[in-house]
Amino acid sequence: MRIKVGIMGSADAARADELHEKAMALGQAVAAGDLILLTGATTGSVYAAGKAAQSAGAWHIGISPAHNQQEHLDLYGLPTDACDAIIYTGFGLKGRNVVLVRSCDIVLIFGGGMGSLNEFTTAYDEGKIVGCLTGTGGVADEIERMVRVVKKETKARIFYDDDPKALLEICISAIRALAPAS
Fold first, then answer.
1. Is domain 4-178 given the CATH code 3.40.50.450 in the classification?
2. Residue-wise pLDDT tens digits, 112-137
3. Is the dihedral of CA 169, 174, 179, 182 positive or negative?
4. Which are the contacts of 111, defined by CB distance < 8 A and separation ≥ 6?
5. Alpha-carbon span 153 to 68, nearest angstrom
6. Percentage of residues in the chain with pLDDT exceeding 90?
7. Cα dihedral: 134, 143, 78, 169 (round 10)
8. CB count, 10 Å around CB of 167?
9. What pLDDT does residue 180 have?
């Protein structure tokens, strides 16, 4: 079965320009690995990563907070063109985050604000493989410190790297190591 990778980070359009190269590299690495990409079907850096992955041949599934496409477009102001399929949860942003994280084998965080922090804490509680793309600011650069300060037992495994391709490779190796022997 193909590995499902979630890319989570800044949906802020202002940060998208700043993180564009890293977002593109992350999306292209997902496509090169023949992985399935999941995102919050959102804007900003996540959109750029999703568009890059889709353009390079990856299957991109968006998980929307909206009830339907009209609400996705009108209420949330979110794009539809970077996704091959969108699942409309109707659960709002926080509910969408839970569905998104639980649907992933690997969660990649780059940049990010409060929403990405919510996605990280969900992934941490769920015991996911988490990759933090360091040097991108926001939550991705603070997770290592937060985990040291807020000690909580979990089965999550967290990896850090400033190179998108290297980070993804580390996370893929970790998920394969957990797979039952055939």
1. yes
2. 999 999 999 999 999 999 999 999 99
3. positive
4. 9, 10, 15, 19, 45, 133, 136, 137, 138, 139, 140
5. 37
6. 89
7. 50
8. 24
9. 78
**Which residues partner with 86 through β-bridges?**
62
Residue 107 has pLDDT above 70, yes or no: yes
List 161's β-bridge partners, or say none: 133
- C-alpha closest to that of 26 among 2, 47, 1: 47
Residue tagged 């949330």 (tokens): 76
Q: Which of 132, 83, 93, 87 is nearest to 112 (CA)?
A: 132
Q: How far apart are CA 157 and CA 1, in angstroms?
A: 21
Largest CA distance in the chain: 47
pTM as predicted: 0.94
Q: Which sequence spans correspond to the domains of the chain?
A: 4-178
Q: Which two tokens stand for residue 79?
A: 């794009």
DSSP string, the chain: -PPEEEEEE---HHHHHHHHHHHHHHHHHHHHTTPEEEE-S-SHHHHHHHHHHHHTT-EEEEEESSSSHHHHHHTS----TT-SEEEE--SHHHHHHHHHHHT-SEEEEES--HHHHHHHHHHHHHT-EEEEETTS-GGGGTHHHHHHHS------EEEEESSHHHHHHHHHHHHHHHSPP-
Q: What is the DSSP string of 100-117?
A: HHHT-SEEEEES--HHHH
